[in-house]
Amino acid sequence: MLLSTHGLTKRFGGITAVDAVDFTLEEGELCSVIGPNGAGKTTFFNLLTGVLEPTAGRIEFSPTDPAAYGNEAEDGVVDITDAAPYETALLGLHRSYQITNIFPTVSVLENVRIAVQAHRGGDSWRFWRNVNAFDDHVTEAESILQRIGLAAEADRTAENLSHGEKRNLEIGIALAGDPDLLLLDEPTAGVSSEDVGQVTEIIEDVSEDHAVLLIEHNMDVVMGISDRVAVLNQGELIAQDEPETIRESEAVQRAYLGGYDPDGAATGTDADDGGESGVSAG
Amino acid sequence: MDTVTDTTAAHARDDEHWLREYAREHVPHLLVIALFAVYPPIYGLLLRTPLSAEANAFLPGTTFLIAMLFLGLFAMSFDFISGYTGYLSFGHAAFYGVGAYFIVLVANGDVPGIPAGTPFVITMIVGGLLAFGLALAIGAVSFRLSGVYFAMITLGFAQVAYELVRNWNYVAVNPQDGPTLSGPTPEIGIPYVDSVSIALGRLAGDSFENVLGLGIDISATLTSYYAIGAVVLLSYFAMQRLIHSPFGRVMIAIRENEERAAAIGYNVFWYKMVAFGFSAFFAAIAGALFAAFSRGASPDETFYFLVTADALIVTIVGGIGTLAGPFFGTAFYEWLEDILSSEQGGLAPYLRGILPDGVLTADIAGITIADLINTVVDGRAPLFLGIVFVLFVLFVPNGLLGSVRDRLGNTVGKYVGGRLERYRR
Question: Is B300 a domain residue?
Fold first, then answer.
């Protein structure tokens, strides 16, 4: 067990965005989280990474290096329910964003390098040494650029990349934190259909040596690469199983195909949960 | 064995290369330093040539040069936090004021526990540390906010400090005019070693006559100029060092995208706090230099919000987030001020001198040319700087140095270094 949530709940006023979710993820697993817009997927990520505080419930994480955050329980299990975003990151929980969230005016290499530097302990507090003297940061950043196919763009300013390249960089920054668990929030959002294949390849490659939790609307991608698929609807975890079983599930099809009533549709808490979802399930 | 020697040789070459590269990248620095070092004697020579009237009118005099130095350092410290973390410190004058007041109060024996005879360099640094602590206290509250709210709350703190010192009878007999330095002249140099210390001040400072037998006289003002310049230079290199360190890169990451900086594992609050502390430290150094040179400090010249506003304006003109830019912005401002005031030469006396009486008294729509000069030229630097500021915001938003860097595609140092490298081959 790498990650587990127990009765995880988040309410915004009268709206329940995430509703008593019990979820576990094993090491090395690639699990997709799907669900209609407003199902609470991104909110779920925000709870896991400490951006939002849960209304109720508990989150446990078993990182490689539990010492990075003091609140350690037995067996290397850490309760990260109240951890701040930087603490979850130092523990090995890294995320990418649905809306590209990079460091725009610095170079592509620096985008990744600064993320590498973050988990190099006290390096960031070395005031008197030139940053170029830390060769290992650059070497690691370069190998990550290689992995996400941006090695040739290292010196370009990040904001000048194409949308597809920015999506890859988005993953690269998350990858640079040496994560135990990678949370990818719609990595193919806005990516042209020709380029989806390349992003998928990167995800598959990354999942070789990382556990991955993937929010994705493109069902070809989800069904193609997931070990397991979890379905959220109106904040509730309504199903989780192998891709084939999920594809056949009636409950899932109901959730997607008008299965939710107008009241339910109003639970649009995932305000930024990208418009057209391109659902092709069933 | 061969391979071993090969790598050592390669290493030796690498080291040399690294040193040369370092030197090359500092060529622009050296040029600027040289310019500031040789300017006063050249200015002095020009005043003895037939061009003296022009030199006096259009070139900055030494008093303005010194103001360039400490105000430039203050503007750079403002840019250090504002330009590199994106948090506009609108209360920066408070740190400048702390540095200024602290050295005056210590010299006057008004600070309990610190003897009046403590060397200036030490009190200056202690004042800087005090400002560092004050920044942590202000930051602990202010960094809960961001954007314009951060700017407003820091401004609020500075105004509180301003009102406090303006009405605090302890600091001066007349607190609204501020304290004056009554102790011995502050000295820059190695504490307790008289031979390597230089006294500051317009009148009471050290002066040297016939230096090295070259017939060059260095007045007290000029001595202060070089001594203050040395401190400003050291402070600049220290700040530059910080910005080029891993810590500085985190500051830039916070400016670029604070949410993401937190998400990749930075406790952004403490990075902002420490960066704020450093910028306050150097602001206090600038304040100490100002107070030492002018032998006193008044609330309106230190804690007042317009002091911060001047730093903001020269930072925009020079280029925000460039560190050296605000210094050049300050130089530009002081130069403009010199031309447009009649304190040391200036345009108004020059025009009055060269224009024939007939022109001066000529009447245009009820106003004479002489009146016009008095109204729109003499002492009107803030007016013209305001116009320049508006033009910069509209047309040169990246400022002087920022635009140069955009044009070169790199910092000036790296660019010049690269060019020199090519010529060497």
Answer: yes
Residue B262 touches partner A, C-beta closer than 8 Å: yes
Q: Is A126 on the interface with B (CB under 8 A)?
A: yes
Per DSSP, the three-state class of B289 is helix
Residue B318 lies in a domain: yes
Cα angle for residues A239, A252, A25 (degrees, 5° grid): 30
Q: Is residue B39 part of a domain?
A: yes
B167 Cβ under 8 Å from any chain A Cβ:
no
Q: How many domains does chain B fold into?
A: 1
Please name the residue of chain B whose CA is at the shortest distance from the CA of residue A115: B264
* Measured distance between the N- and C-terminal CA atoms of chain B, rounded to whole angstroms: 31
Could you report the average pLDDT of every consecutive run of 10 residues in chain A (282 residues)? 93 91 93 90 94 94 77 74 92 93 95 94 87 92 94 94 93 93 93 89 92 92 92 90 86 70 45 42 36
**Residue pLDDT, tens place only, B30-42:** 999 999 999 988 8
Q: How far apart are CA B254 and CA B270, in angstroms?
A: 11
Chain B residues whose CB is inside 8 A of the A166 CB are none
Of B245, B256, B265, the CB nearest to A128: B245
Q: What residues have CB less than 8 Å from B140, skipping those under 6 apart?
A: B273
Place of tokens 């070990």: A227
Q: Which domains does chain A have, with CATH numbers?
A: 1-92+215-273 (3.40.50.300)
Question: Does residue B355 form part of some domain?
Answer: no
Q: Which residues touch B189 (CB under 8 Å, ≥6 apart)?
A: B121, B196, B197, B198, B227
The C-alpha atoms of residue B79 and residue A191 are separated, in whole angstroms, by 38
CA-CA distances (angstroms) from residue B289 to A146, B124, B174? 51, 8, 22
Write down the pTM of the prediction: 0.88
> Which residue range(s) make up the domain with B49?
15-341+379-424
Task: Write the CATH number for B181.
Answer: 1.10.3470
